Amino acid sequence: MLRELIHLQQKLGNSKLLAAINWGALSAVTVWGVDTVVVKSLLGVFDPAGFQCLRGVATGAVLLIIVSLLQPGMQRSLRLAFFPLLGLGMLMGGQLLTFVVGLDMTYACEGALVFNTAPIWTGLIATVAGLETMSRRNWAGFFIALGGVAMVILGAGQSPSSAAPARITGDIVMLGSAAMYGVYMVFSRPVIQKHGTLVVTAATMALSNVVLIPAGFKPLMASPWGQITALHWALVAYSVFLAMGYGMIVWYHSVKRRGASRTVVYQYLMPIVALGAAVVFLHEQPTCWQLVGIVVTLAGVYFASQRPDLSRPGPVA
Q1: For residues 175-199, b (16+ Cβ closer than 10 Å) or e, as one string?
Q2: CA 20 to 30 Å from 257, out of 118, 197, 221, 309?
Q3: Among 16-20, 237-241, 247-251, where is mean pLDDT lowest?
Q4: Where are the domains of the chain?
């Protein structure tokens, strides 16, 4: 009888644990983490700007179709807020472009970790703009995260990861991309409050092509099409439909259902997923100092992000 009661208690405890896990958010960050490795692999055959042009056009179309079906009032929002959305779209286009350029120069695990500092740049920019106030804990987290990033960048030593061409430059460009995403987050808030997160994200993703097409159309046309296999196209489909389509929709559904504070914490798992995928599929070998730097950075981002209205949308890369 006692054994049966213990077994029942364990079973109930496990069911509560499973119910507490936000499976939608977990699946989204898993897809995004793997997507960093997918994009890095595709940059072996595509020019960075050309690839982002291809993905931007496809993703914009997919998101517009999905969101217009989920929210029929989207066309009205586009008419009422076209110029703010256009400005945000151009900003997102620059952020997406710098992301792939930086990723092309560095390694996937480093790039994912550096870009994951976006929430602290959001807080810093909002503070400078007078929209938020950072506490001492937030400032401490900011500098801890920067120290962790420095450990990741400088801790490569003589490992195979240090052989990446212009690796440090790529990490710096990724920091710039994260900061641009922070700017997007701050200036998109009033538009999001009026028209909704999904509508604004789909519209700005589509309008980002105002930047991506001029920058990437010519390099895309010059791609070595004879070297692009069915596997490459499958990876492109993964990046468009799973990472940018499924990931975005499920993430925002999780925010709406579970709340931002219970969802955004899963974002800290993305660099860990990217690290595991990079080790397995790209054979990247981070050093012990870099692993410590990852932990320090994630801890810093966590403390720097502890404000109720900081990060609603998931990362766009």
Answers
A1: bbbbbbbbbbbbbbbebbeebbbbb
A2: 118
A3: 16-20
A4: 34-304
* C-alpha neighbours within 13 Å on the C-beta side of residue 5: 2
CB burial of 80-110 (b: ≥16 within 10 Å; e: otherwise) equals ebeebbebbbbbbbbbbbbbbbbbbbbbbbb
Q: Which residue has the tokens 């490569």?
A: 156
| Contact (CB, 8 A) for 183 and 125 | yes
Give residues with Cβ within 8 angstroms of 176, minimum separation 6. Answer: 98, 102
**Chain position carrying tokens 């990046």:** 239
